Amino acid sequence: MHTGGEPVRIVTTGYPPIRGATILDKRRFARENLDHLRKMLMFEPRGHYDMYGVLPVEPDLPGADMAVLFIHNEGYSTMCGHAVVALGRYAVDHGIVAAQTPYTNVAIQCPCGLVKARVEVAECDGGFATGVVSFESVPSFAFALDRKVDVPGLGQLTLDIGYGGAFYAILPASSVGLDVRTSPVAALVERADRITKATAAAIPLDHPDDPDLAFLYGTILTDGRDAFSQQPTRNICVFAEREVDRSPTGSGVSARIAIQVAKGQIGLGQSRSFESVTGAAFSAKALRKEPCGYFDAVRVEVGGRAFYSGRSTFTYEDGDELGKGFLLR
């Protein structure tokens, strides 16, 4: 599937059991014992540098309809909004949750916690998902505002760090002499990657739920349009190992909303449109305030649309060293 052009490769059969009492235990088990399979599925010749995937696992939270791990070119993320949008539709279409019209609720356990999706279902032949999905994510918050970070080759930059299921450094592209609408993607990626590495080294992160959640996932460069407006705001998210999100990034949009609320730039219930480099749009709004440990957090609702793109069966033959996975960039 894809959401906003961002791939969602959902593994349906053939993966070995992923063991662990909790979903974070399963994440560690997959990383330590099954990482060769992540590389085989994400890397060439079956995938590419920016491929993204989903591994269904057994849920351990009461009320969860399904649980998933997320995989990409560097490892295993803790949240993925574009994948949740696709998974909501997938769960209805494949009978994981019985279809109800006009909306079906799907509770998806992600490594960051329980995410509640609402899937639009059309009244036809017993109901089918249209692909329009919104989700209420885990509490999102501003971790740091207006922090100064020295970035090699770029000087001292002022940025925010937000959490929306994953942590991001967020700042206007103009602060590094670029524009998210007109600058080459390669230039945006190169600067964002520098910012991620410098910020991760300079600012220790922590999360009240689990230390496994406390890492900087990437950098989001924006058009600077942070104050509430009916006009869309555009951003590019560069995450993991210089991977570019083709969608507006659900967890990143949640983090941006949380920062805007913290700065008084947007109020509860005010919906905004967020665009990606493909022109795909997500809607988002802060629903209500809800503390997350010692952070003043908000629950954010994000909406998008997912589509099917095909089915594949992957195989591996003994002696095929390149078939284990490689990357060219």
Summary keywords:
329 residues; alpha+beta; Diaminopimelate Epimerase, Chain A, domain 1; 5 helices; 18 strands; 34% strand
Q: Report the total helices.
A: 5
Seen as an oligomer or otherwise, the chain set is: single chain
Element order: H for helix, E for strand: EEEHHEEEHEEEEEEHEEEHEEE
Q: CATH homologous superfamily of the largest domain?
A: Diaminopimelate Epimerase, Chain A, domain 1
Flag low-confidence runs: none
Q: Ends: how far apart?
A: 23 Å
Biggest β-sheet strands, sense, barrel: 18 strands, mixed
What is the 3D shape? globular
CATH C-level label of the largest domain: Alpha Beta
Helicity level: 10-25%
The overall pLDDT average reads 97
- How many domains comprise the coordinates? 2
Number of strands: 18
| CATH topology call of the largest domain | Diaminopimelate Epimerase, Chain A, domain 1
Give the second-level CATH assignment, the architecture of the largest domain: Roll
Task: Explain how this protein is built.
The protein contains 5 helices and 18 strands. The protein folds into 2 domains: 2-136, Diaminopimelate Epimerase, Chain A, domain 1; 141-303, Diaminopimelate Epimerase, Chain A, domain 1. It starts with a strand and ends in a 22-residue tail after the last strand. With 329 residues, the chain is α+β, with helices and mostly antiparallel strands. The model has no long low-confidence stretch (mean pLDDT 97).
